[in-house]
Amino acid sequence: MITAETIKSVNERVKKIEVKGKNYTCVAARISAFRELCPVGTISTEILSLADGVVTMKTTITDENGKILATGMAQEKETSSYINKTSYIENCETSAVGRALGMLGIGSDEQMASAEEVANAINNQNKQANNQSQQNQTPAKTKEEVEAEKARIQKEKEEAAKKALEAIDNGKIIQLKKMFFSYKFEEEKLLGYYHLEKLEQMTNAQYTDFGKKWKVLVKEWGGITEIQKGA
Length: 231
Hints:
Elements lengths: L3 H10 L2 E4 L2 E4 L1 H11 L4 E10 L2 E9 L5 E10 L6 H21 L10 H22 L6 H23 L4 H13 L4 H7 L10 H17 L11
């Protein structure tokens, strides 16, 4: 005979699985516990509706005398997960059985949902999150857009290459002359390094190159690389 005491006793022994910090009981463990408590009791399942890839099922738990002890319901969608593509009816039946036994008190002393239900819910949440992420992603570019992007990048490269070969402007020339004075190196050293006759011939590419290694060059040319305070 099933009583509150016998259910409490079996719940203390039934195996639980931890999911995200909480303990859940598998449906199989709930069934085993029920068989221990009521060896000749019955677990009956029925399909209430099945249409458009959605199934709803009901489970009824009865004792040896046919008295209804508890019922449970569940619903599954065929498209909700990879496993459901081939087994959504079976999964629904398992969930309905687990909930009915849980309503009876078996394996639900900590959580009503079974371990299978929780795992299925997590999978569905992950799927929804992935679908939402994909929807938020920028739509794929058309062939014309891709070609236009390539053309733009190529044009920018050509313009950058052209500018690199152009002579530096007056502002950069002034900056270089200030460096000759502040860092105490001769203009001729710079002109000789880049094979120039005058600063006005220096290209933007050469100016950028000098900017990357000026400290090493200035030191070699007998200049200084740091300006003393009060200088």
